[in-house]
Each structure stands twice: as C-alpha cells, then as structure tokens.
Amino acid sequence: MNMKIILLAALSVSFVACLSEADTKVPAEGGIDRATVLNDSANYTSIQWLDSIQDMGKIREGQKLEVTFRMKNTGTKPLIVQSVNASCGCTVPSKPEEPVMPGAEASVKAVFDSQGRSGVNHKTITVVTNTVGTQSHVLEFNVEVIGSTEGPKASTPQPVKPGI
Where is the signal peptide (predicted)? Predict the structure, then answer.
C-alpha cells in the first residue's frame, strides 16, 4: 500500500512538470518566441548601423538632448533588440519593442540630461541583439555642454609670464 502511494505521487509530480514545461514555449506577439530567437544561432541575423558614432555639437547645461541611432536589418531573420544600457544614469536609452523584419529600419533612441554635466561628454550605449558575429553593439555620442551663466563661475588660471 505504501509503495502504491509513493508511485502515485511520483507520477503526479511528473505529469504536472510536463504540463508546466509545455506552457513556457508560448510564442510572443507576431508568433516569434523571443527567448528561442535570442538563444538559437539559426535565428541570428545581420545588422547595419547607419550612424553608430555621432557628434552632437554644443548644448546649454540643463537642456535634454535626444540622440537617434538608426539601424537596418540586413539579414533574412527578424532582428530582436534584447536590451539597451547606457554608460551612466544621465542617459536613458529606449529600444524598438517589436522585431525588425528583414530589410526594415528601426532606431535606438537616448535622452541625455545635461544638468551638472558641463564640458565635453562622451557617452556610450550597449545594444544586445540576435546578430551573427557579435550580439553586443556599442553606440557612441559626444556633446559639449556649455555651463550655465548663473551661479558661481569657475576660476580661470592666469597665464604665467616666462622670466619673472
């Protein structure tokens, strides 16, 4: 009798485990299972960055700057942007939520907050995708932030006259 209860319990656990595993393979919107695509090299595609390094010129301190990096899916499979991460908290990136179909273009955007960032700023954004070769792509932008005219001014060093 004791053996029958143990056998019945083992079968019940196995049955429930099989049902749980079947539910995890549900495709995402558009019939594309993102987890499968990102982990299966047969579903990798190619990407072309149309502007991966940008010089944004000058802005005034306190302004917010939006930077757009354009990309094109040059492969034959849907391109999925898994994540985007900025090099610091002053830059907030965003990514396309839907897969980028072959031949289509999309963009990664970033908003840079220049408050307290006077001087030349070099920022990077790391993008993780399902691409052949490397899945990690680094985007860069430079911007010079001109300090505000309000508040204390930094002292300017005086030139030294030689021979005195």
Answer: 1-22
